[in-house]
Amino acid sequence: MKNASQSERRNPMIAAWGAVAVTAYGLLAALQIAVLNPLAAVPGAGLQEIYAETAAAGQPMGAWWLVMGIGPLVATGVLRRTWRRPGLEPSRVARVYLILLALGAPAYFFASFSPGMSLADTYLISGGDHSPWAWPLYLVSVVAAVALAIQVARRHLHLPRGGAVQGTA
Question: How many helices (H) and strands (E) does the chain have?
Answer without folding.
Answer: 7, 0
